[in-house]
Amino acid sequence: MKLFTSKDKLYTAGAVLCLLILWEVVSRAVGASIILPPPGETWQELVRIITYENFWTAVFNTTTRSLIGFTLTFLTALLFAVLAGLWKPLYYLFSPLVVITKAAPPISIILLALIWLGTEKAPVLVGSLVIYPIIYTNIIAGVDNVDHKLIEMAAMYRIGRLRKLLEIYLPSIMPYVLAACSTALGLNLRVVIMTEVLSQPPISMGTSLQTARVFLNTAGVFAWTVVAIALAALFDYSVSTLRKRMEVWK
Amino acid sequence: MEIRMDRTMQKALQITNLAKEFKVGKGVKSLKVYENFSLTVPEKKITCIMGPSGGGKTTLLNLISGLLKPDSGEFKGFAGKTVSYLFQEPRLLPWKTVWQNIDFVSKDIYPKKQRAEIVDKYLKMVDLYDFRDYWPEKLSGGMKQRVSIARAFVFPSDLLLMDEPFKGLDLQLKISLMDSFAALWQQDLRTVIFVTHDLDEALYLGDEIYVLSGLPARVNKSLQVKIPRGERRYGEGKLKELKEEWLADYHDLIFPPERENNG
Fold first, then answer.
1. Sign of the CA dihedral A102, A104, A105, A109?
2. Do A156 and B89 touch (CB under 8 A)?
3. What is the structure's pLDDT at B259?
4. Which residues have a Cβ under 8 Å from the Cβ of A29 and sit 6 or more positions away?
5. B104 vs A248: CB contact, 8 Å cut-off?
6. Judged by CB atoms within 8 Å, which residues 11-50 of A form the interface with B?
7. Which of A12, A157, A223, B101 could bond B105 through an S-S bridge, CB–CB 3.0 to 4.6 Å?
8. ipTM of this predicted complex?
9. Residue-wise pLDDT tens digits, A43-73
């Protein structure tokens, strides 16, 4: 089944157009581009920063930070969640940790990460801690929802533990894993950029945002935001493509 | 000299003094599903277990397969026997194709080349060879159940347990599935225990029919179908005569009047 029809696309384009018009109107009413730059000026600024020599380095550094953090967190959460899902004592051992990371304000985590780690590594840790509980709890839910009738069938046909894990548990939790990935990947990027704003690593998207703010270049803040949104959309697109590939049987 | 095979001489599996009870609620007496229950299952025959729903039929299969542990009792001849199970639902893995679903149970048993031959052979026998690369989701209910029948036979089991696998299918489909099953079985005789609540199904496939009733369950009646399989027609002819004869004699044993369950 197609998720979006061409009619849906048309409506989305219309909505974006409305938003742009509203933006233009409000910015003219405000009349000060330092508070709300009009779309045209933001576009010019966007073109300027893209041609700026450090642009791709900044995007690359932030993307790398984001992806490294995501990958490490994902693998850890997958391992722990599967183990905890299969063996209850481990589940209870992990649960206070999950509650703490879920409830702690991100800013506390940012401050602690800055104290513990340098400016370049802090954003990775903060992103990881924010997305870990999301991935972990999603996978736990997936393990809980494995169809016990299939497990019973496999037991009847004397299928070994490892094969049960690889051929029943993993494919059953896959939809949960992918749903968690699509939420976590975008969130992680946003948190990494936020931490970069505060930690100021040499060349990064967060640092560029902060620099634009310091020079009262509001159009620059807007332009970098557009870049961040585009990057998040790219991440989202990759996950949904992967999802379609992996769930061909649906 | 003519040797007469007496029924008692036939090789058989024996269940003796089986007991099993379940906790059914808080502060309620446990429900005794089986107590002092004994049953003989002839080998390489199809034994049907009939009885009302909630009468412990599925429990019996689960006890035999080892999914449930009995409170007490002896299973003679069952030790070391491998089991295939046909469930009410096909229980196929949705992320594996028809072919892979059947191969799933043979992977650890046969070498790769032989596996492919065996899976192909059984797929052809249930008429699904052209659908081997389909996802189960794309098949009809009857086709899915045929895949699960093929899977049960690909697995080299001594014992085949069937828990109403033809329930809820329309008549034509039911007969065609039972024919697929019977064809496979005749090439590869296994000891079959077939749970059903449908007398026509039992007559069509069975050699021996046990009618259970009451809780704790006991064997209320034991009947034998001696008509050769080739001469059986579902719900018609000789089977119909036999059914009418039995119902005239033992209607209340086969279909006991509903009891009020007031404790």
1. negative
2. no
3. 54
4. none
5. no
6. none
7. A157
8. 0.82
9. 999 999 999 889 999 999 999 999 999 999 9
